[in-house]
UniProtKB/TrEMBL annotation:
InterPro entries, alphabetized: Redoxin, Thioredoxin-like_sf, Thioredoxin_domain, Thioredoxin_ResA/DsbE_sf
Single GO MF descriptor: oxidoreductase activity
UniProtKB keywords: Isomerase, Membrane, Transmembrane, Transmembrane helix
Domain Thioredoxin: 42-181
Keyword flag Membrane: yes
Keyword Iron: no
Signal peptide, first to last residue: none
Membrane-traversing stretches: 9-30
Full protein name: Thiol-disulfide isomerase or thioredoxin
Top-level taxonomic group: Bacteria
């Protein structure tokens, strides 16, 4: 009789565990689709000019992307809690320090943290690219982090990627220089 209860309990546990696992996987799938769909809204717009971006410089003034019209823009959306974001930043910095890349690009890193948090992070790490704050609406449109967009000189989107770049500086530099020809 006791074996019968154990057998029924084991079966019930397997059923409940399976339901929980499938529910969790379904939720993960739903959220990934939601974030990818949000990102597609930005990519389908073809141009960042159409998005009416509300970005803020670290000094609190509105960021104006038109002042970079002589260069391509690498715009990277990140967060301090995002491990892949933090892991790719040294690659971004090394590549940005290359004069050939710097002649063609401005790197803008976008987060939704408060301005003092972004500024503290920038100075502690010694990064010298442009950091700006985005409003929550823009960050929700981006979805998954890190997400990077490459814009041509007219702010048209010529490349987008969700996820971090491979940690190969030469390959990344060549990729950027190739994109800057467009």
């Amino acid at each position: 009789m006791r074996k019968n209860y154990l057998k029924k309990g084991l079966i019930a546990g397997i059923i409940v565990g399976s339901i929980a696992a499938f529910s969790f996987l379904g939720y993960i799938y739903y959220m990934s689709k939601k974030h990818l769909a949000a990102n597609e809204k930005i990519t389908k717009s073809k141009s960042f000019k159409d998005l009416n971006l509300q970005l803020t410089n670290l000094d609190g003034t509105p960021a104006d992307l038109t002042k970079f019209s002589d260069k391509h823009i690498l715009m990277n959306f990140w967060a301090t809690w995002c491990k892949p974001c933090l892991e790719e930043m040294p690659l971004l910095q090394k590549t940005y320090n290359d004069n050939e890349v710097k002649d063609q690009y401005v790197f803008i890193l976008v987060a939704d943290h408060d301005l003092p948090t972004i500024e503290k992070f920038k100075h502690e790490k010694g990064y010298n690219f442009v950091f700006v704050k985005a409003n929550q609406d823009l960050m929700s449109k981006v979805g998954a982090l890190p997400t990077t967009f490459i814009l041509d000189k007219s702010q048209n989107i010529i490349f987008s990627q969700t996820g971090s770049f491979d940690n190969d500086e030469k390959k990344f530099k060549n990729f950027l220089l190739e994109k800057s020809k467009k």
